[in-house]
Amino acid sequence: MNGRRISAVIFDMDGTLLNTEQLTKDLLKEFLAKYGKVVDMDKENKRLGTVHHESAIGIVKDYDLPITLQQYSQSIMPMYHDKWLQAKALPGVNRLIKHLHKHGIPYAVASNSIKKNVEVKVSAQKGWKEYFKVILGSDEVKSGKPSPDLFLEAANKMGVDASCCLVIEDSVVGIKAGKAAKMQVVAVPSIQSESDQYSIADHVIHSFLDFQPELWELPPFEDRVMKALPIEPIHFKGSYKNGFLQECSDDGTSDLPGQAWGVYFGWVKVDSQERLKIVVSIRWDRSCGAFRRNIQACFINGSNGQTCDQLMEVTLVGYIRGFCTKQKNSSDAQILDQDKSIAEACLDLAAYDYHGCNPSKN
Questions:
Q1: 8 A C-beta contact, residue 265 and residue 320
Q2: Structural Rg of the chain based on CA atoms
Q3: Residues 85, 80: Cα–Cα separation, whole Å
């Protein structure tokens, strides 16, 4: 793309590789409540991707907290640390990391977090410590993002020219840093309501499952099975009504990230006995005046009417297709007959089996 051949990839960490943004979104709310303060999401969204020191200064000042900067950090950082250990890789991330590793493509992680915190997050993920040979934190360079320093140093440590690097980021701050480094940038927005701001990137995708290596002259994926892609299981709870699923995640059991877009399929557990096959179309829209997730659902077994208003456990195990990033309507987000046929065929294959969810075959 843009005539440049990519020879290395640089990842951001929080909100790009890991779902840390989702896990920690309520921590500040809990912390501020102790001081009778309420989170201003407009301000916090603008702070996304900034280094901790700058973010902390802004928070103490904006909320007029009666504590010092040091007291704030000492109180809230242990709370973040506990959550980091629970973080999961976002959909498609492990697939891409293993793909790059298999083909000998250099890659690195460059985060605005300090080095020791980045290493904690890497060490908590199975195999990542061996996969990531180059790990950089903002305390290792003169300036963090949006300065290009982190990305330029990552290129230097990998021994590649900066102009041949592809940056993958979830924040506007990180995208600006990548562009300042004269690198190509792919945006995977973590704040869906502000995805229009990500147009400064060279390419915008909804999730890593939409990433096409061949666009950057990298080796293409060859891991689809029966016109679909096996994925690491995504679990969430919801209730079905009138063709749609409403998430029920107050108990914290949902790991459906904001970057989950597209047509997926899997298994549904309605009660202790019944397990059904399901296809879902997941997208974000503003059709009801507020920006919210929209989950259309279709039961392949034809049990739509019987499951109305029942709480169910959903496990998605396969991915069929994404949607056009620039779509203005929901036409391509509808579940098609072809999607149903693909899902039904795939769910009879071992590649899409899931223990504890797939019904036993007689």
A1: yes
A2: 21
A3: 9
Plot region of 159 (φ>0 → left; ψ -120 to 50 → alpha; else → beta): left
230-258 pLDDT, tens digit each: 999 999 988 888 889 988 865 554 568 88
- Which of 171, 115, 103 minimizes the C-alpha distance to 140? 115
**96: how many CB neighbours lie within 10 A of its CB?**
22
Instruction: Determine how β-strand 229-241 pairs with β-strand 262-269.
Output: unpaired
Q: Which CATH code for domain 229-352?
A: 2.40.30.30
At 254, list the tokens: 């949902």
Respond yes or no: is residue 250 known to be catalytic: no
Q: Would you call 309 a catalytic residue per the annotation?
A: no
Burial class (CB in 10 A: 0-12, 13-18, 19+), 30: exposed
Whole-angstrom distance, CA of residue 36 vs CA of residue 23: 22
Q: Where are the domains of the chain?
A: 1-223, 229-352
- Per-residue pLDDT tens digits for 52-72: 788 889 899 989 999 998 998
Query: According to the model, what pLDDT value does residue 4 have?
Result: 67
Angle between helices 52-62 and 69-84 (to 10 degrees): 120
CATH number of 1-223: 3.40.50.1000
pLDDT by residue (tens digit) across 269-307?
877 567 889 999 998 876 655 678 889 999 987 665 556
